[in-house]
Amino acid sequence: MTARILPFVASPMLLALLSTTGCSQPGVPCTAGHGYFAAKYELTQGDPASPCGGLLGDVLGLAPYYSAKDGKAPNLEDGSVAIRPEYVNNLIFHALDQGVADLSTDPGAQALGDFDAADPAEDDFCTASTFPVAEVSIPEVPEVPDDPETPDEDESIPAQPATTVSYAWSNVRILVTADAQGTQMSADLRFTQDGCSADYHAIGVFPAVYCESDEECEDDANGINPSFKTVCDAGLGLCVLPGEPPVYE
Q: Where along the chain do its domains lie?
């Protein structure tokens, strides 16, 4: 099964505006990297031995949205950011792949919060303080048996019990400068699954890059801003920021 996150569509006009921003241009409006962030979680409240308290992190799909101005151009004064975690996305698409339920466009699959202001604050961060709780209930998915026609490959998948997952995001802070246009972030999260809740602090970097060593995170060709300091988190297998944003070499 391939993990998928529904594509977010950014306005071509917005992308053009952002790509031309420089030292002689107006400041970059509040935005977020459009795609996948590698996020490391730190448990702040909850039982680390509980089913919900042992999360190390996730890949988060982020995308900025803007209302239409005069029905055409994006209104950069009225922006928001969507967050869709890969963990719940994988559960949703497994149910879809097995023909059990199509929750891929369920409103509870992602959270959408408004930026507090149109432009970054003096510390270069854009904040989205509050988000509605994103909650989705996924029905039981039966076991997928192994294909007897491929004896050299085990294609079986265990049954996926029915589950309800919710994410309550808050204090989402996104670094927005001319050279870091929404590519470092932090947030607080209350994660709940089937009645078990735990609080986390999340730190993320765009794009998500899988790794086995720090050298892979230091490779200038991996897509991460080369001025960022990143390390390979062995537990996640992802390049992550080693501290609270902003983090530079």
A: 29-134+161-207
